[in-house]
Amino acid sequence: MKTSIATVSISGSFEEKLEAIAAAGFDGIEIFEQDFISSDYAPLDVGRMVRDAGLEITLFQPFRDFEGLPEPYRSRAFARAARKFDLMNQLGTDLILVCSSVHPAAMGGIDRMAADFAELGDLARSHGVRVGFEALCWGRHVNDHRDAWEVVRRAEHPNVGLILDSFHTLARRIDPATIRSIPGDRIFFVQLADAPAIDMDLLYWSRHFRNLPGEGDLDVTGFMRAVTATGYAGPLSLEIFNDQFRSGLPRLVAIDGRRSLIAQMDRVRREEPALKVDLPAFPPPAKVANVEFVEFATSDADSPALEALLLSMGFEAAGSHVSKPVTLWRQGNVNILVNTDSEGFAHSSYVTHGTTVSEIGVVVPDAQAAFERATALIAKRHDQPTREGELFIPGIRGVGGSMIRFLDQNSDLQRIWDIDFKTKPGSHGAGLMTVDHIAQTMRYEEMLSWALFYTSIFDAEKAPMVDVADPDGLVRSQAVSSGGLRVTLNGAETRRTLAWRFIEESFGSSVQHLALSTADIFATAAALSERGFQALRIGSNYYDDIEARFGPDAKLIDRMKAANILYDEDETGQFFQLYSATQQNGFFFEIVQRVRGYQGYGAPNAPFRIAAQRRSAHPAGIPKH
């Protein structure tokens, strides 16, 4: 599978784009004309730079407003084309994208446009180049790939072919199955882009909200299944117009781009096994059974504060690592590791972020298979030295500088607590049972990248994005779940929000809070109170509002108010939440109880939780109740 990406898809200078694209492992680039014109390099120098980077120029684009023009526009269009063909010869590429005209003088008529392209094909042949015709979904007369194909078919010229773009087909809700009847050798190029489902002007939607395959809501897999069925064997290229990408790190966007193409073709292969997909085989995505452990990186000086918090939550020190300064704290099926190592990955995490979640261990059906899939999707493997007799636990670098370890129940990895630790039985503690979800906070422009990471590596689903109102701005939140792994991604846009302050104070994106489940939140709250647990204080106004909104029993309201428990419900069930006071580094714990089939995360309560956290950080002047 030959992969390509348009230079318009990522930010930076031309040199920075090339470096990022090559480092991500792409085979080629589409040169967007604006990127070329805005550089100071001659065409021959640009071609040399691309080849020196180990890349090829797969496409030059765009050539606008060509077909169906009356004179004198028609003659001028051919003169422009001749100059662009000369430029392509100097760049060292043989394919140009001609997008359907939006010129106000353009005339309709398939035969007229086909005649224009037949003549253009002769001109292209004289320059040793090819022409690809693409239907813009907002084109004046051609806005459907079926019409574009008819123009190409009637032009009947070997140097004129079709270019397909998933956005232009899917944005108009055209059935991608109509592509299957097009001969694969007449498709010269395929561009891929996804997008969120937004009802807006097609041109504005395309120019600002495209994203990578798998990051949006369009049926890109159905599109690629149809393309693959034609026998098309050319490049798969990304053309992404997205404001976040234009301001993001070129390296990150390029890596995500290549990951998205690999994941996309893997989905095609799994959904339609009969199709021939040019992609090395690797294991399918798996669901996570459970989160086996969460490790905190800290120091000898800072660990007492974390351990005191764990004690107040009913955890007990249940063991220690056989060779490293790592203590196991356990309650129910929750295993929390406190790592005070002065070297290695945990120490690097601590130096960077302060006390932070540095590793997450997840149980999957086959740890090695999950690891192989992750690395095939260009996740960075993490190999850490182990001593004789200790387990080698496959690991990858996750998002936000953390690490994900893969465990399973079919190998010695199921005996991690017997082999790598000296342990004693845990206790019931305060009734905490499992890790319910992990909340990671990042800059908003990183959210798509983090969601793609989880949904491509695991068999995972995304919930709709919701807006969380902080008094000083919005935070976007989206949940990704895979079996027993739930992750909420919280993207901060405004610098004054609590989420952004956490990013700044922890020097980058990381886990901001950890939610643990209980079967009886009131019993757990009472047990925590006896242990000196400091709960986040919720004001009386909140409970007056809950009474008005949901009308629960007055005794239940009183119990919630006494224990600072928050409440939500929907048609599936009920949800109770209890938060710890925020720690000095901005981290906090959450305790939840899900009743019946509730699958949400209490998003309506987030503004009140944030307001309470702000009050607790600045207690002066708070009226007493």
Features:
disordered C terminus; TIM Barrel; 625 residues; nine-stranded mixed β-sheet; 21 helices; eight-stranded parallel barrel; 2,3-Dihydroxybiphenyl 1,2-Dioxygenase, domain 1; 25 strands; 3 domains; single chain; alpha/beta; 25% strand
Describe what you observe in this structure.
With 625 residues, the protein is of the alpha/beta class. Helix content is 35%, strand content 25%. Strands 17, 18, 19, 20, 21, 22, 23, 24 and 25 form a nine-stranded mixed beta sheet that branches. A hairpin with a 2-residue loop joins strand 20 and strand 21. Helix 5 crosses helix 6 (145-155). It is elongated, with a radius of gyration of 28 Å. The model is unreliable at 621-625 (pLDDT under 50).
Structural class: alpha/beta
Domain tally: 3
Q: CATH superfamily of the largest domain, please? A: Divalent-metal-dependent TIM barrel enzymes
**Estimated share of beta-strand residues:** 15-25%
Q: What percent of residues adopt helix (DSSP H or I)?
A: 25-40%
Shape type:
elongated
Briefly, what CATH class of the largest domain?
Alpha Beta
Number of strands: 25
What is the CATH architecture assignment of the largest domain? Alpha-Beta Barrel
Provide a count of the helices: 21
In round numbers, the mean pLDDT is: 94
The major sheet is characterized as: 9 strands, mixed
Low-confidence stretches: 621-625
Task: Please name the CATH topology of the largest domain.
Answer: TIM Barrel
Amino- and carboxy-terminal Cα gap: 66 Å
What Rg do the Cα atoms give?
28 Å
